[in-house]
Amino acid sequence: RLQIYSELLEKWQKKINLVGNNTISDLWKRHMLDSAQLLPLLPKSECSILDFGSGAGFPGLVLAIMGESQVTLVESDGRKCVFLAEVIRKTKVEASVRIQNCRIEKLPNEKADVIISRGLAPLDKLLVFAERFMRKDSMCLFHKGKKVDEELIKIQKKWTMNISKLQSQSDSCGTILKLENVMRRQ
């Protein structure tokens, strides 16, 4: 199913910009592995996952194809949502994943076990987006790059949380931030 996904991505990339053109040649490491590395970090099987700014479906759609059954892809670009729907249909994961074609700010309130995002926004903005979808036991898994420490320093005055910084398996400069017990400071 991941092969079907990759073939559809390469085909659709010629029509609409789904990922950076310079990353297509390294699709399996740069996008598939980068997304799949979140699977063992999930707190339990059968957890509800919200993927903010899904774009071409990374990382949420990869997790759905790998067996996660409660994935919601949030994407505001209608063309990308059409692509996501095609991949979902062709990979036969309709029962596992749904698409919300809207901006995060317009997404109906719905608590999630895990909130994920890859390359959408700085951490301070991601936490504001995530706040209304989190319960006390929710977790955030955010892909971050070279500026991760700067982003963590910037949020210290407004947020409290348990932070785990995990080295990305697909990018030597990348970090997966695992955030738990996230709360806004009073």
Description:
- By secondary structure, the chain is α/β, with parallel strands linked by helices.
- It contains six helices and seven strands, in the order H-H-E-H-E-H-E-E-H-E-H-E-E.
- The protein has helices spanning 2-13, 27-36, 60-65, 78-90, 123-131, 148-155; strands spanning 49-52, 71-74, 97-100, 112-118, 134-144, 159-167, 175-184.
- Strands 3-2-1-4-5-7-6 form a seven-stranded mixed beta sheet, sandwiched between helices.
- A hairpin with a 7-residue loop joins strand 6 and strand 7 (175-184).
- Helix 1 packs antiparallel against helix 4.
- The longest helix is centred in the middle third of the chain and has 13 residues, at 78-90.
Short description:
The protein is an alpha/beta fold and 186 residues long.
Give the arrangement of secondary structure elements.
Blueprint: H1 2-13, H2 27-36, E1 49-52, H3 60-65, E2 71-74, H4 78-90, E3 97-100, E4 112-118, H5 123-131, E5 134-144, H6 148-155, E6 159-167, E7 175-184
Helix pairs in contact: 1-4
What does the largest sheet look like?
Answer: 7 strands, mixed
Structural class: alpha/beta
Individual helix count: 6
Form type: globular
Strand content: 25-35%
Distance between the termini: 46 Å
Instruction: State the assembly state of the protein chains.
Output: single chain
Helix content: 25-40%
Q: In total, how many beta strands? A: 7
Low-confidence stretches: none
Average pLDDT rating: 95
Order of helices and strands: HHEHEHEEHEHEE
Radius of gyration: 16 Å
Main sheet: which strands, in order across?
3-2-1-4-5-7-6
